[in-house]
Design goal:
The chain has 589 residues and is of the alpha+beta class. It has 5 domains: 4-89, DNA Primase, Chain A (Alpha-Beta Complex), CATH 3.90.580; 102-235, Alpha-Beta Complex (DNA primase DNAg catalytic core, N-terminal domain); 239-323 and 336-347, Dna Topoisomerase Vi A Subunit, Chain: A, domain 2, CATH 3.40.1360; 364-437, no CATH class; 444-586, DNAb Helicase, Chain A. It is built from 26 helices and 17 strands. It has a 6-stranded mixed beta sheet with strand order 12-14-13-15-16-17, sandwiched between helices. Strands 1-2-3-4-5 form a 5-stranded antiparallel beta sheet, with helices on both faces. It has a 4-stranded antiparallel beta sheet with strand order 6-9-10-11, covered by helices on one side. Helix 20 (447-461) packs across helix 25 and helix 25 packs antiparallel against helix 26. The protein is globular.
């Protein structure tokens, strides 16, 4: 029977797909890389081309197929990821029968936001109330056509106009609160969050309205300038970029994106023909922003406000960009405070400035040189110390070498002195990380589980699993595995081996496993690639596991509160003798 979900997974090569988001390197039969879902320095993310699965053995401890990867990367539901991948693979989705409650809830929240956006837009352009907003846009040289392109709107200075509108559309109080459009008052009633404000709908790359930003038009009032949608099931500030729905095609085409701070810093350039601009909410460029942009380009240019917060955002964005192999540049306008003012003041000069963007490390070097302008040794030392945390993050050896030479030349010192300073910084950082990590439980704290996982992984990854398993199960029994799922998987494997003596067919073996055991198999299958491809003495590993198993069994028998039977006493003696034999076998020759 045709299964369109399986057909999608079959047509999309997982290595090629995941490799378009992150760097993967061959590790035996599998591929390995730094996990994109958490910060790490040692690769723990493993992908199998044979099984078309991935798993993170680091702090995520998560895994799955190509659909699960896209769900996690973009924080979308199963149905959304499936639809996108089906379109990419050219598969028509038929006979899809499943219940995606998350998608149903998300779809309802998206519908609320879309109706709210339409309501605000109608008020702005079709009512007397909205004239204040229209006048404000004219003062900022924003045309009606541009305002409609971004679906700008106006929230009436009313306590419950939007609330009443959405209630008539059959949405309940809880949904309005969850969408962030209503606030509960002290007396328990609900009222509109946005009142008397110019409204900017925030959309995702698929053009779904996920939230709003509302600007106060009376600067003399004590109200805060901007009010934003709070964190909701569909709006997360760290992941959202204003204008991405409109800019994405131009970003792909130009292979560059200009990242700005405010909505008008996107809208004004767009009106003047610069369509690859997006705005972060706040002044922090996050890992999630980089992950989103990586889908469209490998290059980003920060065009942030010319103030201290803009400079701080540039510094903080470097680590995220370097981790995801994004080339990061900086552009600054010396004739205006932000891109909105710059493009309205002189669009020709604005265009020329955009073409003169500076690589971020050059920008920092120039910034620190201005900060410590003196030619004395201590000023040079300060510049070197300020640059070290950034240079140390450069992963490409050519780029790294280029900046070592550049800093040395600028400071008129030897390259070896710069490298020595960076080595000292690395050492200091490692010591700090070691101290910090010593308070946490190490991943290899549970040695018994790690040994068992690794041994079974070696068998399942082997080109000749029967040959390896024969060596292992001459020493071990299925009940030597302390984790029940490992024992059951071993029993299933041994049974299959008995019934199919010639060859191990992985697909056929998996068909007979329960879904729970298949998930365990997938994780085990990738674990050996995570640990490394060095040759292992499987007999030694097996004896270590046997030793731990015997110790565990002896301990259980010894702890018995009741008087032990003759049979138990006999077992205890037997286990003790066997343990001594195993320990002798493990002694170095």
């Amino acid at each position: 029977m045709y299964n369109s979900v399986e057909e999608v997974k079959k047509r999309i090569d997982i290595i090629e797909f995941i490799g378009s988001f992150m760097t993967l390197k061959k590790a035996g039969r599998n591929f390995k890389g730094l996990c994109p879902f958490h910060q790490e320095k040692t690769p723990s993310f493993v992908v199998s081309p044979d099984r078309q699965i991935w798993h993170c053995f680091g702090s995520c401890n998560d895994g799955g197929d190509v659909i699960k990867f896209l769900m996690k990367w973009e924080n979308i539901t199963f149905f959304e990821a499936l639809k996108e991948l089906a379109e990419k693979a050219g598969v028509k989705l038929t006979n899809i029968a499943f219940e995606d409650k998350l998608w149903e809830k998300k779809e309802r929240l998206l519908r609320i936001n879309q109706l709210a956006a339409e309501y605000f837009n109608y008020v702005l352009f079709k009512t007397e109330i909205g004239k204040k907003g229209v006048q404000y846009l004219k003062e900022r040289d924003i045309s009606d056509k541009t305002a409609q392109k971004f679906q700008l709107g106006y929230a009436p200075q009313s306590w419950d106009s939007l609330f009443n509108f959405l209630k008539k559309k059959k949405f309940n109080d809880f949904e309005l609160l969850e969408a962030g459009l209503a606030i509960r008052g002290e007396k328990g009633g609900l009222y509109d969050r946005f009142r008397g404000r110019l409204m900017f709908p925030i959309k995702d790359p698929r053009d779904n309205t996920i939230g709003f930003s509302g600007r106060n038009l009376d600067d003399e009032e004590k109200e805060v300038k901007y009010i934003n949608t709070p964190e909701t099931p569909i709006y997360h500030k760290r992941e959202s970029l204003f204008g991405i729905n409109i800019a994405k095609e131009e970003i792909k085409k130009s292979q560059n994106v200009f990242i700005v701070e405010g909505e008008f810093d996107v809208i004004a350039p767009f009106q003047n023909g610069f369509a690859n601009f997006v705005a972060i909410k706040g002044s922090a460029l996050t890992r999630e922003h980089i992950m989103l942009l990586k889908r469209f380009t490998k290059r980003a240019t920060l065009a942030l406000d010319a103030d201290s917060s803009g400079e701080e955002a540039i510094r903080r964005g470097i680590e995220e960009a370097e981790a995801y192999d994004i080339e990061l540049d900086v552009v600054q306008f010396d004739f205006a405070k932000d891109p909105d003012e710059a493009v309205r003041k002189d669009s020709t000069k604005f265009k020329k400035t955009l073409q003169k963007h500076t690589p971020v490390y050059d920008f920092l070097l120039e910034m620190f040189s201005k900060k410590y302008p003196d030619e004395d040794a201590f000023s040079k030392k300060k510049i070197g110390e300020e640059m070290s945390p950034y240079i140390v993050r450069i992963t490409n050896p050519i780029v790294y070498s280029h900046y070592i030479k550049k800093i040395a030349k600028l400071l008129d010192v030897t390259e070896s002195s710069i490298e020595s300073m960076i080595r000292k910084y690395k050492t200091k950082k490692k010591q700090q990380e070691f101290i910090k990590s010593s308070y946490k439980k190490a991943e290899n704290g549970d040695r018994e589980k790690n040994l068992q996982t690794y041994l079974l992984s070696l068998i399942f990854q082997s080109e000749f699993p029967y040959e390896l398993s024969d060596k292992v199960f001459r020493i071990l029994d299925a009940d030597d595995f302390s984790y029940p799922s490992y024992g059951k998987l071993s029993e299933a494997f041994l049974k299959y081996h008995k019934d199919h003596t010639v060859e191990f067919n992985q697909k056929e073996f998996l068909k007979n496993l329960s879904s729970e055991l298949r998930a365990v198999f997938d994780e085990l299958f990738l674990y050996a690639s995570y640990r490394g491809e060095e040759e292992e003495n499987v007999e030694k590993l097996s004896y270590e596991i046997k030793k731990l198993s015997l110790k565990r069994q002896i301990s259980e028998l010894s702890k018995s509160e009741k008087e032990i039977t003759k049979e138990q006493e006999k077992k205890l003696q037997e286990y003790t003798v066997r343990l001594k034999d195993v320990e002798n076998l493990l002694l170095p020759v």
